[in-house]
Amino acid sequence: MPATVLIGAQWGDEGKGRVADWLAADSDIVARYAGGDNAGHTVYVGTQVYKMHLIPSGILHDHVVCVLGNGMVINPVNLVREIDELKSAGVNITPERLIISMRAHIITPAHIALDAASEKARGDQKIGTTLRGIGPAYLDKTGRQGLRAGQMADSETFADALHAHIKLANVKLGREDALDPQIHALAYLEAAETLKPYLRDTTEYMHFRLKSGARVLCEGAQGTMLDIDHGDYPFVTSSSPTVGGVMVGLGFGARYVGRVIGVGKAYSTRVGSGPMPTELEGAIADRLRGTGTNFWDEFGTTTGRPRRCGWLDTVVLRYAAAVNGFDELVLTKLDILSGFDEIQVAVAYDVNGSRRDFLPATLLEYGAAKPIYETMRGWSEDVSGVRNWSDLPPAAQAYIDRVAELCETPINTVSVGPEREQLVHRT
Ligand code: IMP
To answer: All domains of the chain, ordered by start, with CATH?
Structure first.
């Protein structure tokens, strides 16, 4: 049975975690295929808030097996911490429920130090990474000098490889004593011991489960605009969160890719540097962002940084729909738009005097893009209690329909709050 794929349609933080949580209820397997603990997925169940960085949101459903695919970069120490935290919150995590690809790459303290050093060296041009070592880990992977999760299975050779890796990083950092291999390796060796039972050939596992009809959900991290190829390079992450990354990052063919669902927020946010044509400053941005007192306010789950906020950009959504072939789009956080008299939607860009309907391919042009807005009527009603589509205010329905039309993709589900049941489906 072909897999369902869930992909961020903007710059990450679209609310994929809560949508994955909804879809996981009808899945047997939930698999991550790219990225690492730069991601932060929040799921709210009753009074409990679960924050996950590496483990798919599917872990909250007892019947689901979660897979960390070969396309990921995994920090073993942080993964053990996340497992422990979820376990102490009552989540059942065993090697039967969580499996880690032996082909996934490992993030080491050296990668984290190199990430910080590279950002510092860039100065004003910094990417604004999450400082989790993501870029350097993928750099080592493509440079064919990375460490793979499977190496953790043999403690002795893993210790040697880790020491050699840290010594090499010290050369790159320009100081022989920058990182002490003994001290830094210790925590990793302990984590490796804990993770050993979870290691598996996930390519083989996925192959047999897909062939035997398992219902698979592939949970994307980050978003289309942060994709190493399709995002606004170089202000991107180092992996492929888009649909192509699914096949590479889990190891199965295109015929096993079924429904592709995009997740987009009802307005735009971005953390880190890079162009954001609809970015706002002042009262509207502050209102979209919130004050940080609620966990759903626009502050990074991983870094706590305030997110840049602005009106919805349908050029971005249309582009994401084209790159990923969305079958449908889920629009999240519609409730945040309640109370605006008017809402602006970017429908195209003006780039140096010419109208552009498709996302510009170069940073020079994208950096110069000015939004061309369409103004829509807002709504005053609080929609957080709405559960039937027909109870959404007519102006909210008109907004959803216009966005769907502009991104040439149906929207049949919206979220109106952080809780599990605050999803409204078109009937
Ligand atoms: P990195 O992935 O830590 O290298 O960061 C590269 C860029 O992607 C930075 O702009 C980050 O803020 C952004 N980024 C990475 N992961 C996420 C995410 O999960 N949500 C939003 N932005 C992210």
So the answer is: 3-101+200-261 (3.40.440.10), 105-195 (1.10.300.10), 264-425 (3.90.170.10)
Which residue of 37, 139, 226 sits with most ligand 1 atoms within 8 Å of its CB, as the best mutation to test the pocket?
226
Cα→Cα distances 80→44, 49, 54, 195, Å:
22, 19, 10, 7
112 alpha carbon to ligand 1 midpoint, in Å? 14
The DSSP result for 144-157, as a single string, is T---BGGGGGSHHH
Asked if pLDDT for residue 312 goes beyond 80, the answer is yes
The closest-lying atom of ligand 1 relative to the alpha carbon of residue 115 is 4
Of 202-206, 287-291, 336-340, least confident by mean pLDDT is 287-291
Give the pLDDT confidence of 148-161 residue by residue, as tens digits: 999 999 999 999 99
410-420 burial, b if ≥16 CB within 10 A, otherwise e?
A: ebbbbbbbbbe
Token reading at 352: 């140096």
Residue 177: other Cβ atoms inside 10 A:
7
The radius of gyration of the chain from alpha carbons, rounded to an integer in Å, stands at 21
Chain Cα centroid distance, residue 226: 9
**Cα(381) to centroid(ligand 1), Å:** 34
Q: What is the pTM of this model?
A: 0.96
CA of 248 to the centre of ligand 1 (A): 20
User: From the CB of 18, is ligand 1 less than 6 Å away?
Assistant: no
Cα separation of 121 and 140, whole Å? 19
Is there an atom of ligand 1 within 6 Å of 221 CB? Answer: yes
Element (DSSP H or E) covering residue 262:
strand 257-265
Whole-number Å distance between alpha carbons of 21 and 55: 12
Residue with CA at minimum distance from ligand 1 atom 10: 272
Strand partners, 342: 377
In whole angstroms, give the CA distance from residue 205 to residue 209.
6
| Candidate from 14, 52, 115, 237 with most ligand 1 atoms within 8 A of CB, to mutate | 237
> Which atom, in ligand 1's list, is nearest to the CA of 38?
16
Q: Is the CB of 137 under 6 A from ligand 1?
A: no
